[in-house]
Amino acid sequence: MRENYGVYLLILALISAALVSSCREMIAEPTVSTMVSEDLSSDFTQALLNTSATALPEQKSMGVLLGMSSSDQSTSSGYFRCTLSGKCDPLYWVDPKSALFTDLSPDTDTFISTLYDPVNETYDLFLLSTSGGEWQRLTHTPEREYLEDWSSTNQEILFITYKHTEGPQPPVGTLFKLALTNGQLQSINDTCDIQHAQWVNGQGDILFGGICDNQAGIYRITSSGAESSLLVATDRTDFTMSPTGNSIVFNSVGADSTSEVHVLNLEDQTRSSAPHDPGKKDFGGSWIGPDDQQLSFISARGGLPGGEYIWDRSTDQVFPAPWGGESIIAWSSDREYRLVNSTPSASYPLYVLKNEETGDAIELEMPGTMSITTGFIGMLPDNALSEPVSVP
Predict the structure, then answer these.
(1) Dihedrals φ, ψ of 359, to 5°?
(2) What is the domain count for the chain?
């Protein structure tokens, strides 16, 4: 019996080791090769991307793309396409837990959003069409992914996947580059906690905000991920690239312990700062116009808790924005149109599209009690809209 007992122990040990190995495989983190949807390189995806070099130029006209959610989160959220006359049609219905963003491709034919999959209980990236109908799942992981930037060629994206850590620590972000044409995925940096990223001029080097070796700041890294360097140390790691791609606007905490607005020139590394009212918090930063001369930001100066101001860098003057007091959701790139949330002054959801030149104000025809969470105003394809579908 004692002789057999040793054999039994050996067999039990081997079984236990096999079970542990099997469990590890079941709960193993997704590898680079398993993060991307299996059918990403299918003909269907290529048709959705419309990457054919021989494709005829599309006719486009000014329109509005909106992400809308139900006020009580009990029914589906969705994406809608609106005309300048105010008429809105649904494109897609999505789970109300989805994060609605209008991150359009440079050609405005497609956009990417982080949608919730109630079956798998995951948040993944989905490629959608601004004309509706077609859609494609891009990622499939237990983590949560967010799009950061499109390449200027429409064929690559940067996205961050957030891995939740144990305890009260915030999730850690890892940056990836994905080629939409063939599904090739590349980890750009897996040693830093990355919170935001953009290409420099739409391709090549990448800027990212995050924490590397306990140093928070904005970094520049080669597209291969081989080399990175700290551009500016700041605890506010978000930034926005200028229209020319030569500068970024970012925030940092100043000597008076309040937030300030700065611009960093990427070519010569010089920094300029918006004239600051001591003790008043300035934050944000949105570029105005096609050059790098003007930008708007939010400030507590002037006795307002959060008024919008314009910084004219050519004169280094700051003055209240002429549209101050409005709750603006989106601007067109040429600043001719702005979408305004006028709900606080109305007894029902009210959103108005305003024309800067004519002063016209068009009320959007909202479906039911839905609220706009994100918006884009710009040139969109004149394709006939497809019947709305549910995603995923």
Answers:
(1) 80, 0
(2) 1
Which among 289, 364, 304, 305 has a CA at the least distance from the CA of 329?
A: 364
User: Which region, left, alpha or beta, applies to residue 167 given φ > 0 means left and ψ of -120 to 50 means alpha?
Assistant: left
**Residue partners of 340: CB distance under 8 A and separation at least 6:** 326, 327, 328, 329, 351, 352, 353, 354
- Phi, psi (degrees; rounded to nearest 5) at 39: -100, 25
Does the pLDDT at position 305 exceed 70? no
User: Per the domain annotation, does 247 fall within a domain?
Assistant: yes
pLDDT tens digit sequence for 258-273: 889 999 999 999 999 9
For residue 335, tell me if it sits in a domain.
yes
Number of CB atoms found within 10 A of residue 271's CB: 13
The secondary element (H helix, E strand) that includes residue 53 is none
The answer to whether the beta carbons of residues 239 and 207 sit under 8 Å apart is yes
Residue 96 structural domain: 62-391
pLDDT of residue 164: 66
Question: How far is Cα 197 from Cα 221, in angstroms, rounded to an integer?
Answer: 10
CATH, residue 97? 2.120.10.30
Is 1 within a domain? no
The beta strand positions in 2-95, using DSSP E, are 60-70, 77-82, 88-94
More confident residue, 295 or 54: 295
Given this model, what pLDDT does residue 13 score? 44
CB 350 within 8 A of CB 356: no
pLDDT of residue 327: 84
Quick check: helix, strand or coil at residue 89? strand
pTM of the predicted structure, to 2 decimals: 0.82
Residue 4 resides in a domain: no
